[in-house]
Design a protein that fits this description.
alpha/beta, Rossmann fold, five-stranded parallel β-sheet, 8 helices, about 10% strand, GmhA/DiaA, carbohydrate derivative binding, SIS_GmhA/DiaA_subfam, isomerase, isomerase activity
Length: about 180
């Protein structure tokens, strides 16, 4: 595939991506509300989605465009010791849920990222957060998988993992930009 074909492929999904606007705005509104109530955002995912989770937290903690105070954002992918200890002792499916047990407070925003929508460890963490006062969102692709049934789910309109991730990072950037503008602009 040529670079131009790749760009055209993404642009052809423009109308489907635009249909996510109301759902993206809902996430933004809930994040802003949570920050105004001194809550935090907790994000996690596997593989490339883990990188997206790290990226989102970096933008919230640091800055997107504006010089401003850092925002409370925790990526559950950062602590290798915790992930490997929990994975080894309790199983890989517990690596996000277990840290949530100690970090989640009522009203915190929880964002799970899974291109398939079926990552068992993401599902278990979202289920825990739902049961314990978290406001849960997920970024998925394909048909949304099982996560669409247990969270407010943004489904990237693609079945191709790299395209799903490209759409996710665009959504993440927009969320971070708007949260920053609303709170500090």
């Amino acid at each position: 595939m040529l670079f131009s074909e790749k760009i055209i492929s993404l642009f052809e999904k423009k109308d489907s991506i635009m249909k996510l606007e109301d759902d993206v705005q809902s996430i933004i509104n809930d994040i802003v509300k949570a920050y105004k109530e001194n809550k935090k955002v907790i994000v996690f995912g596997n593989g490339g989605s883990a990188s997206d989770a790290l990226h989102m937290c970096a933008e919230l903690q640091g800055r997107f465009f504006l010089d401003r105070k850092g925002l409370g954002a925790i990526c559950l992918n950062t602590n290798v010791s915790t992930m490997t200890a929990v994975g080894n002792d309790l199983g890989f499916n517990e690596i996000f849920k277990k840290p949530l047990e100690g970090l989640l407070n009522q009203g915190d925003i929880v964002i799970g990222i899974s291109t398939s929508g079926n990552s068992e460890n993401v599902m278990r963490a979202i289920e825990y957060a739902n049961d314990n006062g978290g406001k849960c969102f997920t970024l998925t692709g394909k048909d949304g998988g099982k996560l669409k049934d247990i969270s407010d789910c943004l489904i990237a309109p693609s079945d191709i993992t790299p395209e799903i991730q490209e759409i996710h990072i665009m959504i993440i950037h927009y969320i971070c930009m708007r949260v920053e503008e609303i709170l500090f602009g």
